[in-house]
Amino acid sequence: MEFIKLNNGVEMPMLGFGVYQMNDLAECEKSVEEAIKAGYRLIDTASKYGNEVAVGKGIKNSGVAREKLFITTKLWLQDAGYENTKKAFEISLKNLGLDYLDLYLIHQPFNDVYGSWRAMEELYKKGEIRAIGVSNFRPDRAMDFMLYNEIKPAVNQIETHPFNQQIENNRFLSENGILHQSWSPFGQGVLNVFNNDVLKDIASKYNKSVAQVVLRWLIQRGIVVIPKSVHVERIKENINVFDFKLDDSDMDIIKSIDTGKSTFKNHTEPEVVKWFSEL
């Protein structure tokens, strides 16, 4: 496993295990356990996913010492605000069966994010969270956030995959000392990433799968990534990306398939903001 230092000195694994849309809680629990046994040390969930309890059980079942794990969860927008955030944090901690979090993120850039951040800063200073960050913040929102808060976000988790490479956003985050983390590294299957001819050719060259090439490409860009799978073979395959390196020409070839468009939703559209508020 490779690690990267956050802007507060905390080390974070470059590759972790995501549990978005793992609605079968027994399956989620088992998948987390298998992932940790396979070598994953970063586990990423969110209160909105509804599976924090299952994640906590999987962590416990793995038998791996807590201090060797890096656990992330996220604050949903309906829980925004100073007091609400403190309550939501305690619920997440209880659900996960943990005494502290390694990373706590504001899940969406809406509602009272400033009140939430003040609460998170306090929890961070008390040592109940090792690092605090945001998710789905565009550069303008992230800059505004940095300027008017005491503690700068350590992480911004955003949609990043070969068809939406976030090149400008990546440059902005790098210049400002915020770690870029990818969600949806395979584009949620919308553009059929696993059958893309460009990626298949590169995968064949290295005798790796398309998934492994995508994950290695993100890691070489300095982007932390959290692939999801409920299949043990794929869980093991996805972590097996530290024994090869893409050469510069292949990195450039992958850059050529960027569309710059989301395969999910555009967070800058008013209709999307309203949609999130109604979830």
Automatic annotation (TrEMBL):
Q: Cite the active-site annotation.
A: Y49
Q: Which domain of life is it from?
A: Bacteria
Q: Give residues annotated as binding substrate.
A: H107
Keyword vocabulary terms for this entry? NADP, Oxidoreductase
GO MF term (any one): oxidoreductase activity, acting on the CH-OH group of donors, NAD or NADP as acceptor
Q: Which residues form the NADP-dependent oxidoreductase domain?
A: 17-258
Instruction: State if Zinc-finger is listed as a keyword.
Output: no
- Site (described: Lowers pKa of active site Tyr): K74
Matching PANTHER family: 2,5-DIKETO-D-GLUCONIC ACID REDUCTASE, NADP-DEPENDENT OXIDOREDUCTASE DOMAIN-CONTAINING PROTEIN
Its family remark reads: Belongs to the aldo/keto reductase family.
**What is this protein identified as?**
2,5-diketo-D-gluconic acid reductase
Please name the source species: Chryseobacterium taiwanense
The upper taxonomy is:
Bacteria, Pseudomonadati, Bacteroidota, Flavobacteriia, Flavobacteriales
